Amino acid sequence: MGVPAFYKWLAEKYPLILVDVIEEVPEMVDGVTIPVNTSKPNPNRIEFDNLYLDMNGIIHPCFHPEDRSSPRTFDDVFQRIFEYIDRLFIMVRPRKLLFMAIDGVAPRAKMNQQRSRRFRAAKDAAEVAAEEARLREEFEREGKRLPPKDETQLSDSNVITPGTSFMAVLSIALQYYIHLRLNYDPGWKNIKVILSDANVPGEGEHKIMSYIRLQRNLPGFDPNTHHCLYGLDADLIMLALATHEVHFSILREIIFTPGEDKCFLCGQMGHIAAKCDGTAKRKSGEFDEKGDQKNVARKPYQFLNIWTLREYLEHEMRISNSPFEIDLERIVDDFIFMCFFVGNDFLPHMPTLEIREGAIDLLMTIYKKEFRRMGGYLTDGSKPKLSRVEHFIQAVGSYEEQIFRKRAILHQRQAERIKRGKAQAGGGDDAEPQVQPDSIVPVTRFNGSRLASGSSPAPFQQTMESNGDESSGRPHKVRRLNSGVTIDAAIVEAEDSIESDMLENKEELEAKLKELIHDKTDVFNSKDSKEDKIKLGEPGWKERYYQEKFLAETPEEMETTRKDVVLKFTEGLCWVMHYYYEGVCSWRWFYPYHYAPFASDLKDLGQLNIQFELGSPFKPFNQLLGVFPAASSHALPEQYRKLMTDPNSPIIDFYPTDFEVDMDGKRFSWQGIAKLPFIDEERLLTEVVKIEHTLTEEEARRNSTMCDMLFVAASHRLSEQIFSLDNRCKRLTERQQVEVEEVKPDLSDGMNGYIFSCAGDTHPPIFRSPIKDMEDILANEVICCIYRTPKAHKHIPRPPAGVIFPPKIIQLSDLKPKPLLWHEDSGRRPFQNGRFAAARHLVEGSMLKSPVERYNPPGSMSGRKLGEASHRLIANSLKLKVDHTGFSNNVQAPPPSIATAPHIPPFNSHVSNGSLNQGQAVVAPSEQDYSRPGSQKQPRRAPPKHDSRAGYPLSQNLPFDFPNAQNYYPYPICVPGSYLHYPPNHQNGGVRLITGPMAQISTVPGPYPSHLSGKRQRYNTRYQANLSGSYPKCGGIMAPQANRNGSAVIPLLHHPYPHPHLLHEQRGTQPHGANQHQRGNQQQGGNPFSVLDRKGVTQQQQLDLSGTTGRPLI
To answer: Hey, what's the signal peptide range on this chain (predicted)?
Structure first.
């Protein structure tokens, strides 16, 4: 599940960690699909060694997808999973290993959260079913016909839990898929595949991390292994950091805000109005139950690069006046530990801290402030230093009163605002809409112009005959209405009309049901909302908290309860830290309360004696009994089912059908705390022992603990060792066949561990397909064996010897200003908060007129995020089209090259040669002029030798005194001897400040027509350029100075929204001012943007709207 809101916070604070994935898609030639050849180089310009798949992040989206109809059978789910993995494999193209990990039995600490989620899901499903039944009766009374309710194999998503028949069949299906790809896909031929299914204990992502940790520092291990992990949980980021593997990327889908990719013209998802073809949604199946399978939009993906995040943390977590040299690896460990306080899957949420209220910023601020006083780092590897943790968390607790008071005020204001809105709405649903549907006129599309006079057909009335695509065209019914109508045709038409009406009624039912459920989940919409009894922030809030949540009445009971809660919570912090760094330290430990203590309650931690007993994991069926509600008992064998449903069962109290959901201080029902009874392990196991003997052979296999499976093609070097082991085992008795052999790293691309023979056929000549409509594998050339990881050894939390660190890319200009702490932010302008009450810097004797740091009020947008939203609004409103980028249709084009950077007007002011203070604006000389470079991709050149990315402080490269250069410098600066850097392969940024020699950029003709063709003016004796008639002369739109080889030197101009990272774009160097007298190549002039574009759209949006970006922002 991960940490709510953590990924969003991280992406907004450190935007350069994200890089858009360049994805190839299969080509269609004469109706035949040509698959992508994954043996070719990766178009993302990085070759990954290992790809790890957190399979539950794939299974769940395939089980209940958001962008298409739900599958109806297990086979449908399996085929979608295969397609999903194929797409991920094409993006990453691992060269050594593919590791598929499905969640197995979890530790008890996680089972409490799983139990809560599954009980909540069952309760919500029952409420939805009741509402749907009521609406169906209402529709029938009104004479609205509906298709029958769908019943499928997949009605209960709780079956995605170890021990169910679905998970057993899934394992077989994945084995078939692995054999299929290893036999026939050239990109799979040389890789190893490990499948860790649901019968292998442990959560999927932690099984992956255990494999990575245990491979490190062993013979044959490559310290520069490039890892890529796919998964949706935000805690994968912290797990990747905890490995201290530098070359680590996390692959995940770009998460859209709901409705962000919805067309306002036709109402369909997956495209905006700019790409609407005007056709109605095409029904698939009798009642659209199959959905639109062909034209589903492919969600884009991003890489989150851990090495860039580490670099951000190196800047962000600098400790001033430290008594010793700061170790980045220890800082990373402390950052991970601090994030445990804002949420994890094993401990309840601490009421003091909310990520949406800037909790992580608060923790980081206090950490840096208190670092010296608390004596240094909070952790040492997997072990927290509790006395220092106490000092740190007490400093956090000192802000509780302010946080709770502000939270209460905002909560009250929000509730009052919603009530006022409802009161002003008047008649509610019966009120007349302000805009009638008939008055909404679609924007006319006329030769690409934005606004054209005259009428045009409505989107649903436009024909698609011009493109000749029947599959994407409108229904045949429309064509029949325009042709001669016979009696038979009329009958067919009437039947179609009934089906159409039923489909519309179904959509209306679903919309009403969704609205009703949403209103019910919002406490502010509830008429009988319960009073908040705790009233955090008001006097006596802590006493009321322990009275209501822990049922402690007297001060003595409160103190006893507080101490026990603090002990268990601190145990939990230590347990989680060990879990992230060493693996499970106790399978049986769990936090025995529904609520967490306050930060100010964590006292006397240094006196606590914390120890764990390892124990052993539950069996799969025992876990099902521990986490399933009675409504999901169908997934268990009959005798187990009775324990959950029989009123006389000795443990029937574990399975309440109704339970309290505590909504104190919460708005939405999903935020509430389900107050379920905790499972008594001893009572549960006592009853299970009595019925285990009733299991069938198949059920006993589902209830067993197994090992990982290793697959390789017969042509792989490791197959020789596996065949040899298998041949020896065939001559041994069944007991002797458990012979274990150590993997030879020289045959396995550096992988260590142990292998032993499978119980069945290691190399079956024919592999039968378990899936309908998929063929058997004939002449199988894949061999399988059992695999075990190396023996446990201590994890060394730092990069291994011999690692080559990627070049540094983060500049001071990339760092955001220090944020206002949420509880201190009054919502006024920054200078009114007291932080900028007086200007602190002088520039040549005069005070600065503007604040030193840019400030955004809470809830506002700026920069890249504002640019994307603005572009989306314009593209969706005016139906702009994006020009072709020159890449083939089967490839998502890479981001713009150096030559397609947006024009940035120069600054006209100057500075003297005197000393400069921090905050002084340094600008380019007026004689320098600039123009938009061309659009063609440039050849790669060697990077300059003196690059600030290599770790040189900015101040070392400046030709003048620049004090406090290590701090954030908010102003655009131009420095002689500096150059522009346009990192490739990213579409979310602009120019970056990089000090050093000048870059050479080819002055090829640009993509825009000239407004002043043939007219040339000279602004000084050195440069000549075509001028844009739309720009004023003082704007300095000049061609870059050019040298003999046709490349131009562009002086540095800082752009606030940089590209993140493609470091491998190489640049040539040239001394500043070289070849000054060479005339520049003639450029195509002209203003590529309208007045509206230039005044109302940011520079990044101009780049996007110009049509030169690889993928438009949507």
So the answer is: none
